[in-house]
Amino acid sequence: MYPETIQELMNACEWDSVRYFFVSENVFDPFIYYSHLTPLALSLLIGFFIIWKNPRQLASRILFATTMLFSAWVFFDLILWATDKPHFTIFFWSLLVLIEPFIYAGMLYFTYALLTGKDISLRQKILITLPLIPTILLAFSSFSLVGYILSNCDREALEGPLAHYGYLAEVFYTLWIAVFAIEQYMKAKDRHVRRQIIVATAGVLLFLLTLSWGNIVGSFSDDWRLPQWGLFGMPVFIAFLSYLIVQYRVFNIKLIGAQALVVALVALIASEFLFVEGFGIQILTG
Amino acid sequence: MTPKTHAFNERTASEIFLVALIAFIALSVMWGYWKITVLHDFTIFTNDEEIERYVPLPENLES
Question: What is the rounded distance in angstroms from the CA atom of residue A72 to the CA atom of residue A95?
């Protein structure tokens, strides 16, 4: 599979093998599972819940697609933490470089659909997609990931200019969302509509900014813990979305606050199983 | 062109655009899968000197 010298270096690192794509001793801290699986599960939950309750509305479909993209991103990131195979690291890391700006483009499209209640024109769709063309073309080339680093045992790849271009595209989409939301706020006369705009935009921007922050810190520093917190932007976004659903019946979903609170509490407490140690605490959590 | 026809054309064009985009992405992913996991066509750096050509390493910046 690999040349003998490369295989020897890999063997010297004594990496653990992987089960079910992401279960491995290479994931050296259970916090990594907690920081990934909790947002992943919540993202899947909110995506399927909204599309199930209102499959016809455009905003529901866009949100479903975007949450699925985010879930895929988180799962592939977890694979990167666990895998011992260089070709898996390069392939799944390239997939992250490809998918990540699409999440931002998806949230931009979602914001348009949610705040206007209408679809955007084909011209606007093409404009939103244009910055993604280099990413689609070059995601699996050396412009994206220069190579795999085997001078240490950290199982990392060296990011190339396309990865950094992706961060620029994300800033571009985030600014576009902010400017669009301000425009809509100025146009709206009703204070309830204005409040909805603020809540929706705050949720979207907090999610995207924490995700960016986590990824940029991860790319440019050796601190592995800090970037994990970036994924918790998704539960924050869900909290804002839940408020919109309960208070303003957004997506035409009837949900009372108590139901949302119960689901949130169960999700938060259940996620503790990912990192609690000790039989007694496991019993208490259950 | 009547407004109804124009709306229909816009919707059809949007759908074609979306299908084309998804197909383009799928082709890219399939090519990437073949190139990386089957052909192993990527660089493996086995020492820091090779990496230094692309990015200065933090420990070398201090010296």
Answer: 9
